[in-house]
């Protein structure tokens, strides 16, 4: 009987140990809480007209699998970028009241940037992914956004390529040639110009390689003044 009791106790301890290990594996880091702690803003709360669909929280991205866990649920941005986004939405509303901004991605943890970099190194698309060793990109400071335009029915306006399309058709510095060669349509050309005009008027800077990407400041300024998004 004595040895039987010892055996039962050992089994219970082993079961509890396995249960604790499993619980530890399933606990997800609370990035929403971290973003709040950093002072970031849920911009879609302050301006409900701005919509969001966090692409990297789904498998519908260039890696083919979710990169955000279930506790990164909002389009968080630095207050500086939030003010500019709200300004952009106001400008858009005055010109095209039937349209709204939609955010694909905003503040991005550095650990996600590292996963993207690992994927990029296995392909020929490293050019499109900011190197975490060099401080990452402005998403990793909450000072960049990926956006598009949607109509009053929530339909995304066609921009000639999907979001995160790695190729010359996504480049903003080739649009005239793309239009001339019929790689994008006149309406897609017009949509891109509208998006860029609104965002730049609100203070954002566009980039040559991605029609959807806009920066609130330079990388140099971000690295000098603001912290990276780390655990």
Summarize it.
The protein has 8 helices and 7 strands.
Walkthrough of the structure:
With 231 residues, this protein is an alpha+beta fold. It is 40% helix and 11% strand. The protein has eight helices and seven strands, in the order H-H-E-H-E-E-H-E-H-E-H-H-E-E-H. The protein has helices at residues 2-26, 31-37, 43-46, 79-95, 110-120, 175-180, 186-201, 219-225; strands at 41-42, 51-52, 76-77, 99-105, 144-151, 205-206, 213-215. Strands 2-4-5-7-6 form a five-stranded mixed beta sheet, covered by helices on one side. The chain has a two-stranded antiparallel ribbon with strand order 1-3. Helix 4 (79-95) crosses helix 7 (186-201). The radius of gyration is 22 Å and the shape is globular. The termini are far apart.
**Helical coverage, percent range:** 40-55%
Let me know the largest β-sheet: 5 strands, mixed
- Which H/E pattern describes the elements? HHEHEEHEHEHHEEH
Radius of gyration: 22 Å
Structural class: alpha+beta
User: Between the first and last Cα atoms, what is the distance in angstroms?
Assistant: 50 Å
Q: What is the tally of beta strands?
A: 7
Poorly predicted sequence stretches spanning 5 or more consecutive residues: 6-13
Number of helices: 8
Strand content: 5-15%
Mean pLDDT: 90
Sheet with the most strands: spatial strand order: 2-4-5-7-6
What best-fitting shape do the alpha-carbon axes yield? Answer: globular
Structural descriptors:
231 residues, alpha+beta, five-stranded mixed β-sheet, two-stranded antiparallel ribbon, 11% strand, globular
